[in-house]
Amino acid sequence: xxxxxxxxxxxxxxxxxxxxxxxGADALGLVFYADSPRAVTIAEASSIIAELxxxxxxxxxxxxxxxxxxxxxxxxxxxxxxxxxxxxKQEYCAGFGLxxxxxxxxxxxxxxxAAIADYPKANAVLLDTWRAGVAGGTGERFDWNxxxxxxxxxxxxxxxxxxxxxxxxxxxxxxxxxxxxxxxxSAPGVKDADKxxxxxxxxxxxxxx
Length: 209
What we know:
Helix content is 29%, strand content 22%. By secondary structure, it is of the alpha/beta class. It has one domain (5-208): Alpha-Beta Barrel (TIM Barrel), CATH 3.20.20. Strand 4, helix 4 and strand 5 form a beta-alpha-beta unit. It is globular, with a radius of gyration of 16 Å. The N and C termini lie close together (10 Å).
């Protein structure tokens, strides 16, 4: 039986990182985008992850960042994957020597297969909800019927997921992984340990079914 991987994104506190790992999350997301309410600096990220156990995947999220800044983050932090949420081209995304995934923001008229096809070398494609002027983290879901079933890359489902709807999302889309941020928070950037545990339990229950 395949297992749906879980990424908890927008980690801003060491305690939240530890709670996510204790609950069973596979990966933590660190947002290096100043306009996000969940943004962290490289120094803050270093402090957050200083005492994490081994074998935890750390994903750095960037939005149209200067290449030198991404390179600095890769040098200073033990990132295992990069996530790009802007208008980055494939050549840029692939230029940092780490596995990477590209976010595709999905609106009612988005040709999702065509958008995915623009990034054939991506290790994964993350599907998030489109909102004008917002790079991600909207807390809103898109129409899961738009998720293709035959994508060549691993698909990561995001956008408005929470403990109450993630099982339905998995049943409908069969993603490789799910990505949650606001759906397990008590306030922007502040994770709720009980919600994280409920989210992980819901994913596990969906996989069992």
